[in-house]
Known about the structure:
Elements: E1 5-11, E2 44-48, H1 56-60, E3 63-65, E4 85-89, E5 93-97, E6 100-104, E7 112-115, E8 146-153, E9 159-162, H2 169-176, E10 194-199, E11 205-210, E12 237-243, H3 252-266, E13 275-280, H4 288-300, E14 305-307, H5 316-326
Parallel strand pairs: 1-3, 2-4, 9-11, 9-12, 12-13, 13-14
Antiparallel strand pairs: 1-8, 2-7, 5-6, 5-8, 10-11
Amino acid sequence: MLVDELYVECRAGDGGRGCCSFRRERYVPKGGPDGGDGGHGGSVYFTCNPSLNDLTFYRFNPLQRAGRGGHGRGSLCHGHDGRNIRLALPPGTQVLDDGEVVWEARQDEPEFCAVRGGRGGFGNAHFKSSTRRAPRFAEPGQSGEQRRLKLMLKMIADCGIVGFPNAGKSTLLSVVTTARPKIADYPFTTLEPNLGVVRGRDYRSFVLADIPGLIPGAHTGAGLGNRFLKHIERTKALLFLIDISESSGRDPFDDYVALRRELECFSAALLERPSLVAASKRDILQDTRRLASFRARMRRQGKKVFALSAVTGQGVRPLVKALFAELPGAPVSK
């Protein structure tokens, strides 16, 4: 199960209290104050780790607490500083505080301090002066910060496959990449996004994402809802995969219009991305006029239709070649 959204409680360490002490030693008259300072509390940092792909660790560890500072002692002994902790996040993870994005995990981003540890209190030796030779007080340590932050993972892929349930998205992904998603002949087989790397000539490659099936009303939570629509936001290009066979019981062009409507309702910027249209399940198509009609209507939209069968491999190579040609000019998503 993909864990891509949850809350984590971050608590920084409290600072240690200062010590109120006086040096009392034989042959040392008027030893004076020698209380040490308390140590600073540890802080909580977020870092990016490319080897991670989800947030499962934080599902079972929702509370992250840094170490507290040690207390000061006599003989000018200062307390130790609390241990900092660094929480690794997969690339594309946003950290939100009250709905506002405060940091995003990227490889080129420096680590982010979520909560800072409290300052350690000064011991009474810190307050001695020529006019105050015997201070009989010390400071308590300050409390560390606490924040309840939301972590939301948006997968980073170059191209996302968008289509109705059971349109053949997972089958296509398994053919053009080494990914092995679950494949079955019933809707909503894919319950979480799957990623695969498509490799071409000259060591070129791109990441292809299989997004769980969308249905009308997905942006409002219907079907698998908008839980996975956020993963499409990071793609540079889109591939609309339409079931062209009679088994769907729907008109292919209506499917295309419905998919675009769902993306527009979720984020109008998605429709500005480069996109290709592919007609799947060509091998079980009985009436070829269905494909011809779909191509004619899409031609009026300025779109070329790539007819393919992921099972037999027919038409897959031209589609992959077109994707390689489309992606270099694709805009980088924000």
